[in-house]
Amino acid sequence: MSHNSFGHLFRVTTWGESHGAALGCTIDGCPPGLPLREADIQPFLDRRAPGTSKFVTQRREPDHVRILSGVFADERTEGQRTTGTPIQLMIENVDQRSKDYSEIRDVFRPGHADYTYFAKYGIRDYRGGGRQSARETAARVAAGAVARIVLNSAVKAGVRIRGALVQMGPHGIDRAAWDWEETLANPFFCPDAKAALQWADYLEGVRKKGSSCGAVIEVVAEGVPAGWGAPLYGKLDGDLAAAMMSINAVKGVEIGDGFAAASLSGEENADEMRAKRGRPVFLSNHAGGILGGISTGQPIICRFAVKPTSSILSPRRTVNAAMQETEIATKGRHDPCVGIRAVPVGEAMMALVLADHFLRHRGQVG
Hints:
The structure is a single chain. By secondary structure, the chain is of the alpha+beta class. It contains 7 helices and 18 strands. The chain has helices at residues 38-48, 114-121, 137-154, 193-208, 236-245, 266-269, 342-365; strands at 5-6, 11-16, 22-28, 65-69, 71-72, 81-82, 87-92, 160-168, 171-172, 215-222, 250-255, 273-276, 279-282, 290-291, 294-295, 300-306, 316-319, 325-328. A hairpin with a 5-residue loop joins strand 17 and strand 18 (325-328). Helix 1 (38-48) crosses helix 7 (342-365) and helix 5 runs antiparallel to helix 7 (342-365). The radius of gyration is 21 Å and the shape is globular. The two termini are 36 Å apart.
């Protein structure tokens, strides 16, 4: 299987399967001399971890990360620092229950990638989805933690990346009630306390029915200077869209106002500017911090839509590998709304894209 690598100068290759011994990633292109410990990575993995509430899969994975290469420490380095060589990160799998999947080894789950994987490779790991499982995203989150360190070394004031769930099923948030602190206080990463309470009742009903629902996640990066990205084939928003679309179950991405911009007039959509201390000040941010593929210095805003989890208890019509018609009801431990744990994954992909574009920008213009 090819195409397991992501990025240009800051390049990440993930490896491993859902029910294998371990998974992880190799990071190539990380600058030398940056402080990096396992403790710098672990908090981000803890946010993504399964089993943290009744609203996510009850698979119990501690997701403890180990740094196997790419760092060095002695009395001259003031702690463990990157060496500029490939960084290898590993996360062991400890709570697989492969027997949960024995009944679907030859049956394709509707809405899942079972059939397309089999059609392409002629073989598939049915245990939790193997390589196609969202379990792979743990490696992305670990790599994203390293990318954040690169970004904070690049920008004196630091780059702040935060994500939030802004819609669950048909239920959205009240943007007037947005509170970033609230995303840390509820199990949904929801910035609206009232909406979070409503979602708890809604998702409990979905979970008890053995069904699932979709979600919309918004990721915001603040502190990115103007000038990152390139026109045409190196667009920052183009790479962001590709990065978010590479996350499991994502079916749509928009930057700034996105599709809503189509209903605006030219006057409404234009982000007008004034001058202050020799720099432009934007009066709005319909463009989501990117114009012509290049960052404007405003917050970069990206949203992506996640479809409902395909593994559900409700019987669905399908076919098996012998092309016989049958029905399937998926047992096991699954997220009733996979979008919840996609929030830290979206943050990680934002960090990976920005770290790569920082190094590309530095390589071109110094």
